[in-house]
Specification:
The longest helix is centred in the middle third of the chain and has 43 residues. The protein is built from ten helices and six strands, in the order ααααααααββββββαα. Helix content is 59%, strand content 8%. It is found in: Endomembrane system. Keywords: Membrane, Signal, Transmembrane, Transmembrane helix. It is a single-pass membrane protein.
């Protein structure tokens, strides 16, 4: 019944929101801007200083008087005077038109709706790509966390039910604990059914061992695993997709950086060549032969010059 009422309320709300027109949105903007500029609770009528039952003549007279007061030429240097003067003209146009005034009177009497439709807010506060991505990330992570919470509660119920059934099978209807271990079979759900031959097939059965207050799951290899509420995995923000992706990226980056550092440390060092006995100290290996040839040529040239002088 409550679900039906909620769905009906949503249907009515969607119908009302979809009925708001472009002109309605213009009125919403004017009402908001007027209250910001002139004060909370200011209406079209109160700003013109006329009653809501004012005639067209009274509205025209009030508009002329107000326009003289707010004219930019008479208010030089006043901040926001141009916006206020332009807003006055738009409001006066609405009140002079019978259909538009009738629409404004509806919101004047019933109040401007707080929720004006997603299209209204999106058109005025259009978010950028970054904002949309952040919103979607938060939304999907929140939904994933909600699913984790629901699954955790469901697992807790299943564990508590299995523990109760195991104790019931081991202790009997009076639920009086017995000394020692007792092996029992517990139905984990999916009650009895008929197979193709008409035979009754029990649901999924699990071997369990009850020892005093402790309940263990007996695996096929004969090992015992304690069953309690800690067996269920609680919800955690760290297991939402974005946080997991962030942690995984940081680990990969750290691992890659560590490998690069190890590769640098493991590179073989270049052997140092001792050139202290070389013909020319400080010369490289490739320069040594050329330097030797140059030295021999200089000496030979000196001998030839000496021989020429003696002659």
């Amino acid at each position: 019944m409550k679900l039906f009422v909620f769905v009906a309320f949503l249907a009515v709300l969607v119908t009302v929101v979809s009925a708001w027109t472009k002109e309605d949105h213009e009125i919403f903007d004017l009402v908001t801007a007027l209250e910001v500029s002139e004060g909370k609770g200011t209406t079209f009528y109160s700003w013109l200083d006329v009653p809501s039952t004012a005639t067209l003549v009274e509205i025209n007279k009030a508009y002329r008087k107000k326009s003289m007061q707010l004219h930019p030429d008479k208010n030089p240097g006043v901040k926001g005077i141009h916006e206020r003067f332009a807003r006055l003209g738009v409001i006066a146009t609405i009140l002079k038109n019978s259909e538009e005034r009738k629409r404004y009177d509806f919101f004047y009497k019933n109040g401007v709706p707080k929720w004006r439709g997603s299209g209204y807010y999106y058109a005025r506060f259009r978010p950028g790509l970054g904002t949309v991505l952040v919103f979607l990330t938060i939304l999907t992570s929140g939904l994933q966390y909600l699913v984790q919470t629901l699954n955790y509660k469901r697992d807790l119920m299943r564990i508590e039910l299995a523990i109760r059934d195991a104790r019931l099978a081991a202790w009997g209807p009076k639920m009086e604990p017995h000394q020692g271990k007792r092996k029992v079979k517990v139905n984990l759900g999916g009650g009895p059914r008929q197979d193709g031959d008409g035979n009754i097939v029990p649901g999924k059965m699990l071997d369990m061992v009850v020892e005093q207050d402790n309940v263990f799951i007996l695996d096929p290899s004969g090992n015992l695993h304690l069953l309690d509420t800690s067996s269920a995995t609680p919800a955690a923000i760290s297991r939402t997709w974005f946080i997991e992706l962030l942690i995984s990226s940081i680990r990969k980056f750290s691992y890659s950086k560590e490998n690069s550092r190890n590769d640098v440390d493991n590179e073989p060092s270049t052997p140092t060549v001792d050139r202290s006995d070389s013909p020319v100290s400080g010369a490289s290996e490739g320069e040594e032969p050329r330097q030797a040839e140059y030295t021999a040529a200089v000496k030979a040239g000196g001998r030839r010059r000496k021989a020429t002088r003696k002659r």
